[in-house]
Amino acid sequence: MSAFALLVFKLAAGLLADRLFGEPRRLHPLVGFGRWAAGVERLVRLRAEGRAAGLAAWTLAVLPWVALAAVLRAVHPLAHWPVDVVLLYFALGGRSLAEHAEAIAAPLAAGDLAQARTCVGRIVSRDTAALDAAGVARAGTESVLENGNDAVFGALFWFLLAGGWGALLFRLANTLDAMWGYRTPRYLRFGWAAARIDDVLNALPARLTALTYALLGRTRLALACWRRQAPAWDSPNAGPVMAAGAGALGVALGGTAIYHGRVETRPPLGEGAPPDAASIRAAVSLVRRGVLLWLGIAILIALAEPQVPIRFPGGGGA
């Protein structure tokens, strides 16, 4: 079995674990990492502020765990099997994303707007108290499309590129961007490194995610929306993902939203009818079919490779 074929086998195992078990209900590693990162932030801010302090905090928060993953893979010749599969399982959030989406779509479809607002408020940062049904559907659909990259395809990409430690690095960096990557007085400079590192790590996965959405939906419209609309978004990676995803679904997203009490008019995404509960479920289906497409392509590549064992001491594919 080639090194890549072995990696694909682990990838399938990690996807199966995510589908069967979902996120841990208690003692979730990312929750623990969030507390660790908050502690690192407090410690660093006692001594320094600014971009250099933010980069130092990022390094202290992320790299020790990546190093630990590398050490655990090396403690035994077979340790890479469980370590890589478990790291990918913890990095993925596919089932959790689908569960959160359905928790929004079900009450929305039943006309229970209050419950739908409550549930969408758990996965978006915008203010949801005054959202109408279309606003809830818009927020839910956008979140599914964007998190399809952050919680699924980005982790898969870095796992295929570097193994378990790659998926871990991506997910922790993405988590720090969600914690520190805000353009607020507190994080404008301190969070600069977290935001830029996430942009770099996400650059290729985001575009592959956008292409995946386009191939599995309304391809021409998705590509046209990606080309026209993505450059208008502040985020260089969220723009392609959400524009292509909205176009693939044939719905109109973007527009006005309220963040932390401030009204923001965002560029349009996609084209077509306003979103509804069915749009949220269609976005989930798009992500699920994309995962199957990625897995199928990875299997085909593995089968086409010469079946010559390759060893990378301490590397992602061993």
Total beta strand runs: 2
Whole-number average pLDDT?
Answer: 93
Structural class: mainly alpha
Question: Residue share in helices?
Answer: 55-70%
The coarse silhouette is: globular
Total domains: 1
What is the H/E string?
A: HHHHHHHHHHHEEH
Seen as an oligomer or otherwise, the chain set is: single chain
Low-confidence parts, pLDDT < 50 over ≥5 residues?
312-318
How many distinct helices?
12
Numbering strands along the chain, what is their spatial order in the largest sheet? 1-2
Determine the strand fraction and express it as a percent band: 5-15%
Q: Gyration radius, to the nearest Å?
A: 20 Å
Distance between the termini: 11 Å
Largest sheet: 2 strands, antiparallel
Keywords: Cell membrane, Cobalamin biosynthesis, Membrane, Transmembrane, Transmembrane helix
Membrane topology: Multi-pass membrane protein
Protein name: Cobalamin biosynthesis protein CobD
Organism: Thauera sinica
Main features:
318 residues, mainly alpha, two-stranded antiparallel ribbon, disordered C terminus
